[in-house]
Amino acid sequence: MRQRPLSGSRLAGVILASVATVIISPSAAFAAPPSNDDFANATVILSLPFSDTVDTTEATTEPGEPFVFCGMQQTVWYSVTPTAKAAIQVQVTGSDLTDPLVAIWRADGPGLAGLSPLGECKGSGVPFDFLAEAGTTYYIQIGNGFFSSGGILSVDVQEIPPPANDTFASATPISALPFSDTVVGTIAAGVEPGEPMPSCGSQPPTGTLWYSVTPAVSGAFAARLAGFFQATTAAYTGATLTGLSEIGCNPFAFNSLVIHLNAGTTYHIQISGVFDRNPPVTLTLDVAVAPVANFAHFPSDASIFDSVQFFDASFDPEQVGFASWAWDFGDGTTATDCCPAHRYTADGDYTVRLTVTTFDGRTASTSQLVQVRTHDVAITKFSVPKAASAGQTRQITVGVNSNRYPETVQVALVKSVAGGFQQIGVLTLSVPVSGANRTTTFTFTYTFTSDDATIGKVTFKASASPVNARDALPADNEAIAPPTKVSN
Q: Whole-structure pTM over 0.85, yes or no?
């Protein structure tokens, strides 16, 4: 039998029924977002340690939700309100595909608008440590990066215990040198009632660490910090927390605190800082390295006419710096500033000695031989022809005198040309010490040219200089003769 065609109303009913069936099909239904998907429904952490597993696949991002430079999406929320001041660590882990991120916010006001961030976001497996105040609510925001579609994340929240040497009574003993100790969990360090504030500290510390040492021998010892800039090192004598007397203080982690300790006496070392980022701090204690004394001077070939400038070039490996300088110039005179100038009154060899003292009392000395030699040569005679013709060869003589030392002297002779001078020749001779009227003669020969005749004259200039020495009075080392007339 032929099936009857459906009327328009019956056709519409079937289509609607089909559509309805598709809409309510369980296989097409979406999973619900996590219960703590919204800030208002944050999971409240009532005790620590706390752990949770959450699926962020269907998590959302609500309007007005804050972010800290990390592009977080698909977020869930937790909150914690400690009843006492505590250091808390939050860590979220997940697969590489989930790209988990965590940020911590302090509730300074109502709602999302009242949140203040505590630093940058942290990634998978990177602990986020923060110092929580009693009675203040902190929100933990966890989500996925831009290139993740979500997944299963593990959340762990725990309190960080204070370091073992957080208190004066539990100071770590230093039994042998060299000593080195690294402390983690510094964010949980506290400050005891009556604990002294280091004299060089710029602000009250939020936490301190303690060490004790009883040296077997007396001497200078260096306490050094590494790994944290905002830390102050102080050393004390005394047996009780309230009976301590400070003997040294250093406000910079990259410098050493050098202290003089007596054998058999117990000393306490306090490390204090604003431990709000939980940095590891490493303390080393060892015998202080001695400073190295050194200096330079200029000119290196001094004469009695020079003011010799001395420069301190000493080095302190402990970076404490120098408090004083003691100079002995070897001629019976002294100075006490870092970089003095000194003029010697006679030629000679002088042993110059420098002694430096650091701010903590360590000393070092060094000496150098400073040679003072006053070299002085002069051109005392210069003979040139009064007239000459082109093609004629004539002699030119230069007389050089040295009245202090035998010298090897070089004399250069030049002549005038259009636009300047042109070298004719160079002679080098030994010049003995002689009186003012006795000279060593340097003899040059020169053949006059047609160019000289065209100009009509030639002016000769001679210059003398000691070889391998500096002339102390160079003004008389150069001479210019009267012009020589030249004709064809």
A: no
